[in-house]
C-alpha cells in the first residue's frame, strides 16, 4: 500500500460519478463528507498487498499512528486514491483492506471517516504547511518487496501428487522403488533428481570452468544474474547451433516467424495462460501499463494462429521461431553456468493438429526428430535419459503408444503419472542430460496441449466448413541452445575424467585446423596452407608467436584443436603437410587436398561459419585475465 499523509485544517469531498463498474454501495449521506483538524490519508492498495491483506492493514495502521502521534492528530480521514500506484489490487481486495483499516483506526481511539470507494470525487483540503504536514509511506507484506508474480502453476506443481515408475521397452511398468537400476546408473541419478525436486546447485559444475578456460562464455556483472556474455568462439558455437536446429526444423516442414519479446499482462488469454505455465516472469512497465517478457514463443505464435484462416487441408500446420531471448526469473540459487539461466535462446515449434490421432502421430515424429537433432551435436541416447509424463487415464487408453516411445529409444524411461490433469498438456516427454554433479537438465521436449486453442480462439474449418478447436503441440527439438552447449561441455568433462581427450564435434570447433610453422622461414608456406584451407571453408589459424614448437603444440592441444599441421622446410619443398589428429592421436603425412576431403566428409550437411578470430595468433586479444 502507498500512502500520502497530509496534516490538514480540513478535508471535504463530494461524489460525482462511478469510477468502476461495481463501486461500493453508499447512501445519500455518504455522498458528501468533511472533517476538520485531520490527518488525511490518501491510500492506494496494490497488487502485492493481495498476498497478505491483514498484514498490510496492521503495517499501515502502525505508520498512521506514528505520524498522527507526531502531528498530534486525533482525527483520520481515509481517502481511496488510485493515482498513487500503477499496479493496483483487485477492487474487492482494495475495499476490504480500506474497510479493515477504518475499523482498526476506530479501535485505536481515532475519530475516523472514510470516503467511498470506486467513485470520482471532488475534494478540497487545506494543508497546514509545517515540516511534518506532508509525508509518504509504503508498506508491503513481509518479504514481498522483490517477490516474483504469483503463479498458480508453480504453486500447483509443488502440491501435485506424482506417481513414479520406470517403463521398460518390453512394456513393463515398474514402481520406481522396485526397479533394479543395475546397468542403469544414469537413470537412477535422474530419477533421484526428479523425485527430490532439488534444483539448487551446491557447487560449480565442470562445464563452467571449461566455458571460461576456452573463452566461450562469461558472467556479465553489468546485467541481472543468469544473463551472460559470449566471446567470439562462444558466439560462433552458439550461432552454428542456432542455424543447425533452425535448418532441421524448417526441413521438417515448419514455417519460420518472428514475434515480440514482451506482452500485455492484461490481455485476457495471456493472463490466463501465465497461471497455467510453471515459470516466473520478468515484469517491465511502459507508462501505466505492465508487460511481461516472454518465457517461450507460445504467445506470439498463438496470436498469429488466432488471426489466420486455417483449413483441415493445412493440417498439421507447423510454425517455428528461434527466440533470442526468452526470459524466466529462475531462483538465484538455481542459476548455474549454462545449465539454468534467466535469458536463453529457445528453438520453439508449435504444430496445429486436427485431433488426438494426428497429434500423437506428430508427437512420435517429433520425438524421432529430437533424437536426430541431438545426435548431430554429439549426444546419443546413452548421454540422456527420457521422462514421459501423463495422467492415469491417458496411460489406460494409450499405453501401447507410450511403450512404443520406450522401444524407439531402446532403454527404460522414467514415467511421472498424475491422477488428474492440471497443466495444459495431456502428454509430455523430455530428453534430460545428467551432468557431473548428478543434476539433470531437460533438452528436447514435446507436449500435446489441449487447452490453449480454445483459450486463444484458434480454430480450423473441417470438411463440412464447421469451425473446430484443434490440439497444439509444443516442441523444442534441442531445448535451449545454451543448454545444448552445457551438455556438450559436461559430456567432455566426463570423458576427460576417464582419460579420454575432450573435443567439440568437428563442425562446431571454433578452429578446426591450426598451422604451426617450425620457424619464421616457413611462415609464408604456413600462410599458403591456411589460405587453401580457408578457401575450402575450413576454419584455420596460424601460430606465428615466438613460442617453441612443443609449447605451440601443447597450446593447440589445450584448445582442443582437431587437426594440428606442423610445416617445416621438408613440407614446403615437398608440397606436403604433417598432420596430428586429435581424434586418434596419430601423426601422418598427407597432401592438403586429402585433409580437405577428410574434414568435409565429417562436416557435410552441417552449417558453416567463418573463423571468429584473427588468422594470426599474435593478433588476438585475451578476453579473460
From TrEMBL:
It is found in: Cytoplasm. Zn(2+) binds at residues 298, 350, 474. It comes from the Archaea. Its cofactor is Zn(2+). Gene3D superfamilies: Anticodon-binding domain (3.40.50.800), Bira Bifunctional Protein, Domain 2 (3.30.930.10), D-tyrosyl-tRNA(Tyr) deacylase (3.50.80.10). It catalyses: tRNA(Thr) + L-threonine + ATP = L-threonyl-tRNA(Thr) + AMP + diphosphate + H(+). The keyword RNA-binding applies. CDD domains: ThrRS_anticodon. PROSITE patterns: AA_TRNA_LIGASE_II. Its EC number is 6.1.1.3. Keywords: Aminoacyl-tRNA synthetase, ATP-binding, Cytoplasm, Ligase, Metal-binding, Nucleotide-binding, Protein biosynthesis, RNA-binding, tRNA-binding, Zinc. InterPro entries: aa-tRNA-synt_IIb, aa-tRNA-synth_II, aa-tRNA-synth_II/BPL/LPL, Anticodon-bd, Anticodon-bd_dom_sf, DTD-like_sf, Thr-tRNA-ligase_IIa, Threonyl-tRNA_syn_edit_dom_arc. Homodimer. This is Threonine--tRNA ligase. The gene is thrS.
